[in-house]
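Students often ask why we bother predicting the structure of a whole assembly rather than each chain alone. The short answer is interfaces. A chain on its own may look different once its partners are present, and contacts between molecules only exist in the joint model. In this exercise we take two input lines together and write out one structure for the complete complex. Read the inputs first and try to guess which parts will touch.
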Amino acid sequence: MSGIALQGVSVRLGDTDVLRDVTLSLDARTIAVVGENGSGKSTLARLLSGLVVASDGTVRVLGLDPVRQAAELRRRVAVIFSNPDAQIVMPTVAEDVAFSLRTEKSPRSEKNERVIAALDRFGLADLAARSSHDLSGGQKQLLALCGAFVRRPDLVVADEPTAYLDARNARRVADHLLADTSHRLVLVTHDLELAQRCETAVLVQDGTVTEVGAPEQVIATYEAGIPW
Amino acid sequence: MVTLYRPGDGPWHRLRPGRKTALLLLLVLGICLLPATWWAAGVMAGVCLACYAIPGAGMRELGRQLVATRWMVGVTLIGQLIFLGPESAAANTTRVAVACALAALLALTTPATELLETFERAMGPLTWLRLDPRRVALTLALTLSTLPVLANLARDVREAQRARGGGRSLRHFAMPFLVMALKHADELGDALTARGVR
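Now the answer. The structure tokens for the assembled complex follow.
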């Protein structure tokens, strides 16, 4: 399965070039995307998830064109955002997870089994009947993960998934994201320790990808460029 | 006041969502058509008690629903007492409280996902008016689930106002609240798209 391939990609939002002439080919299973605020990391993540359309260039994610094969991309790519509140759609925990399977054609009993298994895996089984909005920040982010993973995606794009969490919950969320080997992961993060746990890292600076390689090397370049 | 599904296996839970919705709608309609008399108030209360007496609902849940609607019931009662007298006030207030409690019974015993599917089916004829039933049903579900988020946003804005020594200015509340609500709508839209909703 091919991973991510970008050829001369630019993204223009309004009058601003958020990404400029990005050419990238990534086949690692876990990829960290690092860079300063406003550098274009999140736009890159949204581009890979099909939430933003490239103004120029070609994008292929898992061999799919995010514009022409949008429905297939949605089926195979799950997205996790930093704000867990914005990801809750249904009133209770179990129903929110079940919502992710709404468009699947499998029998209801099978869907229920998958929801129960996913809740169990993320330690949310005891909270299944609780109001989704009454959960703590960490539990809400675990719920978002649960809603994403229940669909069995081939690629998970996580945009700063630990940004709102305390150290313990951040570790739990990171462990869940990195431990599962059944999917590829693109992890946009400011947490450089977390980035080091990935196989490859991408450095985004001022709308362009300036370095791709081993996380230690990319992080060293990134830190060297920060005017402390 | 937003009622959440409570898992169970009583008769209300086992009843198909479509039939349950139709039955409860009929009961509410019947209650609306009763005259404003003492005996009618008794009948309405009796119907409500009977519905909640069925295993899977329970009197404790009925109590919770009545507590949740206390302000609306109180305002209705006072207004009716002033303008219509005790008999009409009792009957009409009971009517409002019972209608709310019966509506809550649907949400209490039906998972939101099944309710969504039922609404989609029920609104099937709307396609004739070029309306998409899936979108209408999803909008209803999102409206319900967004209420607590908006309440939290409003609280955050008020707290930020207080922290900065602001008063209770509606203008100073409305602008940041609107901006935060729009930002939430934008993020929720992305989350829905990412979860396969087109």
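Check your guess against this: The CA atoms of residues 1 and 67 of chain B lie 9 Å apart.
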